[in-house]
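Re: weekly structure request thread

Next one in the queue (460 aa):
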Amino acid sequence: MEIREQLTVKEIFNLANMPDVIRAIPDKVYKFFEVNFDFVQWKWKEREIFWQFLDEYYPQFIDYQKDIVYVDELSKKECLIGSISWIFDILRDEQATLENQKIAFELTCCVPNFWKISHEEGYLFSDSSKRLALSYLSTIDTNLLVNHNVHINEKETIETLHISLKNCQWKEIGDNHHQISNIFGQLAINHHCTYSFIVEHHIDEILNLINNEKRVWQLLYWLALLPEQHKHNIVLKTNNQLAQFLLLLNLSHRIRNEFQQEQLQLSEIWHKCPVEWFQLFNKYPWLQLELGKFITSTTHKQIQIYIDSIELSTYSENIQECLTYFLKHAEQEKIHYFCKLAYQKWKTWDFEYSYSIKRSSLDRAIVKYFQDVATVQERADFIHNEMTFILSFNKYWFTNIVELHKFIYFHLSRMQPAYIADKLQQNNSLLFDDLNKNFYYPNLFQEDKRWRNWANLDRL
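Done, posted below.
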């Protein structure tokens, strides 16, 4: 079908406010609602029939990403402009009937992002419309929404998840993040125009619902429908820790550079959060910048908690942004304190007796320790002691050659941060991230063929 015209939603709104517009909806639309819509329950008998009916009177080609309506028939354009004008009148009128208000709410779907754009353009609607929308939201039974399509063998899993959420069992919730995301998706399908209205024009009411919600599935419903642009503010303002936790798990879009300022604002959350959150959130890259800002300004006790939460066994790129921010912005005294704690944790680590040279997640701080906290002599002594262990390997008993190799690699692994600190001291134009891509060996390994085997093995 030929497209005659394209209109943005803002252009449609402007046309709807023209004085010569007939502010009405077709009589057939009224009659269709009377036959197919349950005004008491605010529910369509068959919603698919509603969409088919709309295509007869309103433009059916819509770009929801660009907020554009494509007009294929001029009569449909006139009907759309008149209907939008009527919707504005009804939803502004404190004396409008409940039936007309509900019809107006339902017809807002004729244009994309009606509520978002009307808010951006400064449109105001009646308190009567607000009360009606909030009244409807209070009747939604999300327990049925969650359990309606659940297969019998999934019910036990859903019940277990419900218990975890209700009791704020943070680790279990984090472990079930994927399942929770699926439930969010199911709930989001059941979005309603009244929620869209309240979230865009009365966001404080949504915050109030979230803050006071005790029912688990109902809380997930409020969060599932929350537009991306509002999640940041809700995370900052809510006093509902479960809501805060679930939203933090779903802020992955903020990893992009343009959201860095938003990330930094969230640093305040960590001052009051449960201790378990640190370990759980260390693996999420989109939360690292605010964690870095947090430990930059927090107490020694909180720094200890953060260090305790780090798992050394996995060299994680995720926490490097946190450490980089901290080491760049924190005061020297706090950096030294942090690095000392990191070193104390690292020096007793067994490197999992790996069959290769192994990194730790705190290497950036360990290198800083050898640079700024330990003296040059202490660093040299550390390397010398590790080398002494290697040279004295024949004084120890090993069950097999594999155990001997692990022994050698253990001490080579411990040397790595000290060697990197040496190179940084010799040339301060070098970068940790570049140096950390290589392995470093004692001179003896380069000079004596008997020792090169370990270096060569590691490069295979």
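Residues 5-123 form one domain. The chain has 28 helices and five strands.
Next request, please.
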